[in-house]
Design brief:
With 207 residues, the chain is of the alpha/beta class. It has eleven helices and seven strands. Helices cover 49% and strands 13% of the residues. A five-stranded parallel beta sheet has the order 5-4-1-6-7. Strands 2-3 form a two-stranded antiparallel sheet. Helix 10 links the parallel strand 6 and strand 7 (185-188). Helix 2 packs antiparallel against helix 3. The chain is elongated, with a radius of gyration of 18 Å. 28% of the residues are buried.
């Protein structure tokens, strides 16, 4: 069935980033041992992405529990640079062509696990990324994150679409488990070439 909506993840799809490690410059900003610093950031980020703690509280906890040394403004900049974000121009150009091809037939949405600081960094550096989508759903605004079922229920409800009308593109297979259970299409993102191949089959299918 030809999709009415294509839903894209951001991190790992449009924006490449460092995973599960932190660069030395960021570790040097702290007084706690390296393992403690890593455990703090990767232990807290799920709550932060759900907005269970505010940006200001996250900063305070980083100072108290990981020994961050710097102002809040420095923390915002450091916390973004630590992930070494890189905009994937090839993927974005492919998306823009896809958008033209599907005009009037397919809507394009974003569904991203992202915290407030990183979202504003992405928006400052690549504003077109978000402005080119019909709807943008972010974990820190919804209070839920993938792969939890609740976030998909919220997105479908807000967008007033059924699962069968949607295809979700994400770089993590575990984020596609629930969508597939409820009848949503899922494409495991593994680069532009494979995505193009998968979408050709879908978009050429009968409505």
């Amino acid at each position: 069935m030809r999709p009415r909506v294509l839903i894209f993840d951001v991190g790992g799809v449009f924006v490449k980033h460092r995973e599960k490690t932190l660069p030395q410059f960021f570790l040097d900003r702290h007084t706690a041992p390296g393992d403690q610093i890593l455990n703090f950031y990767f232990g807290k980020h799920h709550d932060y992405e759900r907005n269970r703690i505010s940006s200001e509280e996250f900063f305070k906890q980083a100072c108290n529990e990981a020994g961050y040394r710097g102002t809040y403004e420095e923390f915002e900049e450091d916390f973004c640079k630590a992930f070494e974000f890189e905009f994937d121009r090839e993927m974005f150009d492919f998306f823009l062509k896809l958008k033209v091809r599907c005009v009037g037939e397919v809507e394009f949405w974003i569904l991203s696990n992202v915290n407030e600081i990183h979202y504003h960094y992405w928006r400052r550096h690549w504003p077109g990324l978000f402005d080119n989508f019909w709807q943008v759903f972010l974990s820190f605004e919804l209070g839920e994150r993938k792969p939890d079922p609740e976030i998909f229920k919220l997105v479908l409800g807000a967008g007033q679409k059924t699962p069968y009308q949607c295809v979700f593109v994400d770089d993590r297979e575990e984020n596609g488990v629930y969508p597939k259970q409820i009848g949503m299409g899922f494409i495991h993102y593994r680069g532009v070439a494979k995505l193009r191949e998968a979408l050709e089959k879908l978009l050429d299918s009968e409505t």
